[in-house]
UniProtKB/TrEMBL annotation:
Residues 329-339 have a biased composition (Basic and acidic residues). Pfam families: Pirin, Pirin_C. Residues 311-339 are annotated as: Disordered. Belongs to the pirin family. Residues 207-309 form the Pirin C-terminal domain. It comes from the Bacteria. Residues 61-139 form the Pirin N-terminal domain. It comes from Ramlibacter aquaticus. This is Pirin family protein.
Amino acid sequence: MSSPVLRVLPLGFPWETADPFLFCAYHDDAYPRGDGRMGPQASLAGRDIGQDFSRKDGWSMYHGQRVPGFPAHPHRGFETVTVVRKGLADHADSLGARARFGEGDAQWLTAGGGIVHSEMFPLLREDADNPLELFQVWLNLPARNKMVPGYFTMFWAGQIPRRVTQDEAGRETVVRTVAGALEGAGAPLSPPPHSWAAQPGSDVAIWTIRMAPGARWTLPAAQAGSRRHLYGFKGGEVRTGGQAVQLPAAVELRADEAVLLENGEAESEFLMLQGRPIGEPVAQYGPFVMNSQAEIMQAINDYRRTQFGGWPWDDDAPVHGGQPQRFARHPDGREETPA
């Protein structure tokens, strides 16, 4: 019988993905105490401010000038799914939505025909460090939905389905499902209406998996024809379908086979991305993902001309105050907070 393991890949930055996914970045930043203005209480000397991906002292400013993060920038033709595992992210966009989320929350943003958003990482604590850990995944849109209106969705940590299983020795595996159904985890979340994940048979799954030392768990089979990557970002050795893999590493698996995961002596964590390929041409230029170079040129020209509706905020890197409460204000003015 052939192995379910197709390839084992190193984890760089960003992580290699497969159709229908375009990109996956893992940010794990050991930010220091805040300076009272939501920036780091540390010298910024030696950093290329505005373009700092240095990981100096275990953290980066990214494109932030004072607060770390990504000030206002455009997207067209795909979706972003952002899962903040530790710390907080402040979101603002050209639809008029804003949010502070983290501690396991997920945000799903359909860029469609064009959106501008910012993602900043406010360092609220002045008496302790401010660690941040998040994934950002780019999910492609099919050609028919490339130009749909932008759409903002929040999934609070308590809403995300979760399944805890124990093996024969009582060792736990915990799976959280931002997208896709898993038996025993409860009803799956509803992706945005124009997402590829909302299309029947797309088989899109975005799961995080945490395995206790020595735990055994079987990853269930998916549809034939889907692509599946398992990104082991924390841990030591794990046996995947009988093959020893040293983490950190990415493993491309046959999607239509159940795969036994046997963890080693350290707790291990994984992100799984899975889906049926869209199977269309991809043309990408920075934050624009279309089907042809002509459409890319149109996106550039449209953004120069319209700014995708303009930026309704006073600052290109808005942060939402010094209190840690998470919230979302939707484009229609509706406000929500986690239960």
